[in-house]
Amino acid sequence: MADTQPTVAPTPNDGEDATLSSLDAGTLPVDALPEPARMALAAYRAGLAETPNGGPVPADTPVVVAWAPGRANLIGEHTDYNLGWALPVALDRVVAIAGRPTATPAFSLYSTHHTRSARYAIPADLANAAVDRALPYWARYLQGVWRELARLGALPPVAQAAGMTAAIAGNVPVGGGLSSSAALEVAAATFAQALGAPALAPMALAQLCQRAEQWSVGARVGVMDQAASRLGRPGHALLLDCRSLAYEYIPFDLPDVALAVYDTRVPHTLATSGYNERRSQCEQAVALLTPILQRETLGRTVASLRDVTADDLVRHGAALPATLLRRARHVVSENARVLAAVAALRASDAATLGALIYASHASLRDDYAVSCAELDAVVEIAREAPGVLGARMMGAGFGGNVLALAQRTALPALEARLAVEYPRRTGRVGELRVCQIGGGPQYATVKDG
Ligand code: GLA
Questions:
Q1: 114-127: average pLDDT
Q2: Separation between Cα atoms, residue 418 and residue 408, nearest integer Å
Q3: pLDDT score of 326 more than 90
Q4: pLDDT of residue 171
Q5: What is the C-alpha separation between 446 and 45, in angstroms, rounded?
Q6: Which residue has the CA at smallest separation from atom 9 of ligand 1?
Q7: Catalytic hit among 80, 225, 241, 376
Q8: 239 C-alpha to center of ligand 1: Å?
Q9: Ligand 1 first shell, C-beta below 6 A
């Protein structure tokens, strides 16, 4: 196997329309906005519209509300930073920001989730600012997005010497592996676009948000979460080629099948979760394999685990320390599973998709070692429930959510079984959420703000 290629390779998407979809809430009933957008608007009006942040600029600026979705990943875990394949979907759950630019160069922010305010005085040299460690994480993400926009010279004109006052609300569970942080970053970048910032191509916007996350948290995350949030499309999964950054929409055409996520309520923090350690182990495996593979095939390029095949690992795996071999084996086999999952989706073959999802969990547990007892327990409970086709831990791991692919008719029994068995086996109480595949970011201006 020279290289794993999808049945239909995604084509580069350079020509993609960069325009974000906007609504005009001045002519729409506010009821038509997603609930978090309404909550953010209400919080802005209730507490922030009058905060002493220099007043809005210009004085009659409408309130802008922007929102972006969290994501679930069908398959392709810990492949993105190895330049492989991933197959996420955007969720029908969003993070929203409502507010206005203000004359004082400071962020005055309020989070309805944390019921907490944060203030950040924007330095003149924002592009080279350091992380403000006095800020809570959620505010650092905004600081990061604004800083990246400044680095690109892509701040909205109105914000160049000014700040903003804004409220944040959302219904993406926080800290549970559904990428509430990516949703917040993409919502912030969309907010900037709504204020007239230069248009950014969708993948460029996702990469900007990825850099903001890396900078804010210090985790060397890949682009999957931000790309899924920016590019999600209802009824479709997003096949991402994380090397070329090409992508393709794969219809999720399984009407009898539901996606459910079970929150183990084991919090995970990327920064402390061994994420960076896994990433550097992959780099070490590439560094050790490269000279060996190049001796074997003169001129062969080995830039990442994307360039390594299962056969390579069979022939030369013994040259790697056992841990590095396991890490590499996960990434190489997971890439193959993504492409097999795409073929299964195209064939509306839910059983095969489910089997691949179970296999992904086993690989993440045994080879990549990013699962935990609670995640494993949920996968086992799901496996015992009739009508469940597949289940696996999702996202960075070490806690967070399990994704289950189940017959719709099997959901009540699955929920009942989890409600009894998960507390019995782990001593914890979790939560099952049935998800719909949602669309990408949007914004609205609210004329009466
Ligand atoms: C986190 C990161 C992503 C990806 C996943 C694991 O969600 O933000 O870039 O690496 O973990 O697949």
A1: 93
A2: 16
A3: yes
A4: 96
A5: 11
A6: 222
A7: 225
A8: 15
A9: 77-78, 80-81, 221-222, 224-225, 395-396
Q: 40-92: per-residue pLDDT in tens?
A: 999 998 877 666 677 777 777 889 999 999 999 999 999 999 999 999 999 99
pLDDT (mean) for 258-263? 97
- Is it the case that residue 173 has pLDDT exceeding 50? yes
Cα angle at 212 between 155 and 396, to 5 degrees?
Answer: 150
Strands across the sheet with 236-241, in order?
85-86, 236-241, 247-251
Helix axes 224-231, 202-217, angle to 10 degrees: 140
Q: How much is the pLDDT for 8?
A: 41
User: Edge to edge, what strands does the sheet with 401-407 contain?
Assistant: 388-393, 401-407, 257-263, 431-435
Give the gyration radius of the chain's Cα atoms.
Answer: 22
Is 40 within 8 Å of 167 (Cβ atoms)?
A: yes
Torsion, CA 20, CA 21, CA 27, CA 32, rounded to 10:
-130
Burial class (CB within 10 angstroms; exposed 0-12, middle 13-18, buried 19+) of 19:
exposed
How does DSSP classify residue 398? S
Residue that has been written with the tokens 């830039």 in this structure? 303
Ligand 1 atom nearest residue 78's Cα = 12
CA gap 4, 380 in Å, rounded? 30
Query: Residue type at 381?
Result: I
Ligand 1 atom closest to the CA of 396, numbered from 1: 11
Token output for 143: 């600081």
Please give the C-alpha separations between residue 209 and each of 149, 222, 225, 238, 281, in angstroms, as whole numbers: 9, 11, 9, 18, 25
Dist. CA 120 → ligand 1 center (Å)? 28
| Distance separating alpha carbons of residues 225 and 141, to the nearest angstrom | 14
Residue 263 designated active-site: no
Mutate to test the pocket of ligand 1, among 85, 180, 225 (most ligand atoms within 8 A of CB): 225
The β-bridge partners of 438 are none
Please provide the size of the chain in residues: 449
Q: Which phi and psi angles does 106 have, rounded to 5°?
A: -150, 150
Task: State yes or no: cis peptide before 10, omega within 30 of 0.
Answer: no
The tokens for 289 are 């394999």
Q: What pLDDT does residue 17 have?
A: 62
Pick the atom of ligand 1 nearest to 181's CA.
Answer: 8
Instruction: Using the predicted structure, report yes or no on whether residue 449 has a pLDDT greater than 90.
Output: no
Distance between CA 449 and CA 443 in Å, rounded?
14
Q: Is the pTM here over 0.70, yes or no?
A: yes
Contact 252, 236 (CB under 8 A): yes
Determine which residue's CA is closest to atom 7 belonging to ligand 1.
Answer: 395
Helix, strand, or coil here: 186? helix
